[in-house]
Specification:
By secondary structure, this protein is of the alpha/beta class. The protein is built from 10 helices and 10 strands. The N and C termini lie far apart (about 35 Å). The relative contact order is 0.18. The structure holds adenosine-5'-triphosphate (ATP). This is ABC transporter ATP-binding protein.
Amino acid sequence: MALLELDDITVHYGRIQAITGMSLSVDQGEIVTLIGANGAGKTTTMRAVSGLLKASTGSIRFDGDDITKVKAHVRVVRGISLAPEGRGIFPNMTVLENLDMGAYTRKRDKKYAANLERVFDLFPRLAERKTQTGGTMSGGEQQMLAIGRALMGEPKLLLLDEPSMGLAPQFIRQIFKIVRQIHEQGTTILLVEQNANQALAIADRAYVLESGEITHRGTGAEILADPAVKEAYLGVA
Ligand code: ATP
């Protein structure tokens, strides 16, 4: 069953059209990746799904409901959490305070404790650094914190916008391993990545975005093997 369904959406920044007639879906339990070059519209897509930007035409359905006109904060409560590009953590708050912000829709109850435990299991480094100020963490640690904060809302759909951006290779491997783990624990994921090879390797299905339009779609393996995609995005002719 489709958990998320974008039907022919168009997104504008003022008069600039960033997304044109995009249709895509993410089924319950899937990990789907959206790959594409700089400026293709990946972040714009994530903003449209999370409600930070409005689709000018088309519709967005989530978990059986039309959410096209639903506000961003309500989408969070419905189960859509975004770990934004460039981390977007609160730099002056501690690790624990940042995580609390992700849990703002819940009280400090048993669920809160269980979610916090899940985050600390996935990211032991965050547990060690609970009281450290977010802004003083390394880039990789801040990325972990952004993902951890999104998980505190116990999302049905986790939106990950370029989690590997700007990280050293050993951190990139670790982040992809953790993304796979989160998925194995039952969270449905839409993953945006420039690191196409690794994203496709863990994805059930993939979409390729070029200048605001989807040009290829298929299973992760099909897209990995597609000669045109290989040449354009995977660094092999
Ligand atoms: P990157 O990997 O570089 O972040 P992306 O695929 O996420 O790229 P977007 O950030 O979604 O791409 O940008 C898509 C298009 O929309 C680009 O042409 C970009 O210049 C334009 N755009 C993005 N943000 C704005 C904005 N705030 N105002 C005007 N145009 C914008």
